[in-house]
Write a structure and sequence with these properties.
4-stranded parallel β-sheet, about 325 residues, alpha/beta, about 15% strand, about 50% helix, 11 strands, TIM Barrel, 5-stranded parallel β-sheet, globular
Length: about 325
């Protein structure tokens, strides 16, 4: 059977492949920064921090609401072709602001892409705000306040991204309190390039999910805490192996975490940078990590249950994947 899929972890700017980045740069009359590409169809990066730099270079050519519409529509269309019914897009208001876009323009472009993809393919999507850790807690609190009241109805979540080892989550606690009180679902990048201590620190925030979180497996007591609290991990195996967290897929802890009772989902993270897709992550789980169709469907249901989504839409999607 074709298992319906759902994705909670993908960075919107990071979904644009080199061809689309070049197309947007040409349309906007700007040059793609030197060093962005390793070849015609491949981004250049060496390690995690270098990847973050390349990501920013590529994102710098995204200049207009129309650009955000096109990136969103093209990515969601590709997900729908692979059988995805729901995607959460991690989008950065700071990247948009850096090129002069207001929140209203930024989200209007993304929303148009979501609406167009839904109309054509039936796929649903929502937006999770990305806070850049390197800009500091005060900036995070400002963005949290800006989105805690009136906001675009598709903006549903709050996430801390970037160099987690250099910028631990503790100082951002106030921003998370503001976001959670304002009705935003909360998740945080932890346990990827920082170890299990970053996951433990993340558990002090008002979160229901953790982006990555896989290095919690190094601390059995911490794994037990995750399971007891029902914290959902947004796991990205291809990204983890590509960035050197694990030497091979067979070493990846997705299965071990699930066996220990931790709720897990699959995400593609930054698809063209790592040769990933949401369909590819499900295939990988099936072919190399031992997940049968029932286990894959459980991943989808877990994602929909944990999604930062209105309950009526959640119920509809859960009923559809169950059928």
């Amino acid at each position: 059977m074709t298992v319906p899929k759902a994705e909670l972890h993908v960075h919107l700017e990071g979904t644009a492949p080199p061809a689309l980045v070049r197309r947007l740069a040409e349309r906007n009359g700007v040059a793609v920064p030197e060093g962005t590409f390793a070849s015609e169809d491949r981004f250049a990066w060496r390690d995690f921090l270098d990847f973050l730099d390349t990501y920013d270079k590529a994102a710098s050519v995204i200049r207009t609401a129309r650009d955000y519409r096109d990136i969103t529509y093209e990515y969601l269309s590709s997900c729908a072709r692979e059988g995805a019914v729901y995607v959460e897009l991690i989008a950065s208001p700071d990247h948009a602001a850096a090129v002069g876009l207001s929140d209203a323009e930024h989200y209007a472009g993304i929303a148009q892409g979501i609406d167009d993809a839904r109309a054509e393919h039936g796929i649903e999507a929502r937006v999770v705000i990305a806070l850049l850790r390197s800009l500091g807690p005060e900036r995070a609190e400002e963005i949290a306040r800006r989105h805690a009241g009136e906001r675009h109805p598709y903006v549903a979540g709050f996430n801390l991204v970037g160099d987690e080892a250099g910028f631990p989550p503790g100082p951002f606690a106030r921003a998370y309190e503001i976001a959670a009180a304002g009705g935003l679902g909360c998740t945080v990048h932890a346990g990827e390039h920082a170890g299990p201590a970053s996951v433990a620190a993340a558990l002090e925030l008002p979160i229901t999910r953790i982006s990555h979180g896989v290095r919690a497996v190094e601390d059995p007591a911490l794994v037990e805490r995750l399971a007891e609290r029902g914290i959902v991990l947004e796991v990205c195996p291809t990204s983890n192996v590509a960035l050197g967290l694990y030497p091979a897929y067979e070493d990846h802890p997705l299965g071990a975490l699930r066996t220990a009772g931790v709720k897990v989902t699959l995400g593609s993270d930054d698809p063209p940078y790592f040769g990933a897709s949401i369909g590819g992550e499900y295939a990988l789980a099936s072919e190399r990590l031992g997940f049968d169709d029932a286990a894959l469907l459980e991943l989808t249901r877990t994602a929909l249950e944990a999604a930062f989504l209105e309950d009526a839409v959640r119920r509809r999607l859960l009923a559809a994947v169950t059928d």
